[in-house]
């Protein structure tokens, strides 16, 4: 009921703002920028076939890490990024966090092509291990909870982890398969130093994955969520956890990214 009221408030608030932005707000540059941000979000949720394949942005890329010289991480495939990936900047943020925290055991929910998995492997010590869980395409119709329509395309794929398969860092990575709602996390209890939650973005899944991951974390470990600002399921679940569960009261959103983090105490 509380969620229903919150959702209704959210929709009404957004509808009012969009109404203003599409009329009088067009004369306000902040409003025009907000519209552009919204467009960017939906652009990433289109069908890949609808996207013009030629990248019109020919100017070489850089970011604050490169400009300010405080990029300590080693990265690969940063700019080879598209649907279902962390952005260039987010990948660097995650890689730098990994490099700084030096985790021995990492658990990721949602392997996809393994771009973030590989970059986490690149920034850990030789004896670190990364377990990455992915839902096999064959299990798409038998998940315990409903996944979002818009994420079916990330599940339906020939293989998981092609970015790291055959890479010298692949020895650190252990691929496991299953539905995060039914997967047995028990054997990892109290062993994970860093976790990356980026599986299903449906509200129930984000709640499930957050609680399951918390149950396997070591004290002092770090949980990282992707897509806090991009998917309603993610922000509804994280807002709820933040507001109602004391174990999640220290979640923080990293500004300028869709990443949320929690240091486990
Ligand atoms: C957005 S992609 C992950 C992107 C990847 N973490 C990265 O940074 O490049 C989401 C992944 O979660 C997986 N997934 C979706 N629902 C899942 C579930 N219930 N259990 C496990 N994995 C799931 C999908 O198969 C897909 O590979």
Helix-strand blueprint:
Blueprint: H1 2-21, H2 29-43, H3 64-68, H4 88-101, E1 105-109, H5 115-122, E2 129-134, H6 152-155, E3 173-177, E4 192-197, H7 203-216, E5 217-225, H8 232-244, E6 252-253, E7 260-263
Parallel strand pairs: 1-2, 1-4, 2-3, 4-5
Antiparallel strand pairs: 5-7, 6-7
Helix pairs in contact: 4-5, 7-8
The protein binds S-adenosylmethionine (SAM).
Helix content: 25-40%
Order of helices and strands: HHHHEHEHEEHEHEE
Number of domains: 2
What Rg do the Cα atoms give?
19 Å
Provide the spatial order of strands within the biggest beta sheet. Answer: 3-2-1-4-5-7-6
Approximate shape: globular
Bound molecules: S-adenosylmethionine
Number of helices: 8
- SS strand fraction: 5-15%
- Please give the alpha-carbon distance between the first and last residues: 31 Å
Q: Structural class, from helix and strand content?
A: alpha/beta
What is the mean pLDDT?
Answer: 89
Low-confidence stretches: none
Q: Assign the CATH superfamily of the largest domain.
A: Vaccinia Virus protein VP39
CATH architecture of the largest domain: 3-Layer(aba) Sandwich
The CATH class of the largest domain, by name, is Alpha Beta
How many beta-strand elements?
Answer: 7
Main sheet makeup: 7 strands, mixed
Write structural notes for this entry.
The chain has helices at 2-21, 29-43, 64-68, 88-101, 115-122, 152-155, 203-216, 232-244; strands at 105-109, 129-134, 173-177, 192-197, 217-225, 252-253, 260-263. The protein has 265 residues and is α/β, with parallel strands linked by helices. α7 (203-216) packs across α8 (232-244). The longest helix is centred in the first third of the chain and has 20 residues, at 2-21. The model has no long low-confidence stretch (mean pLDDT 89). The site of S-adenosylmethionine has 24 residues, from α5, β2 and α6.
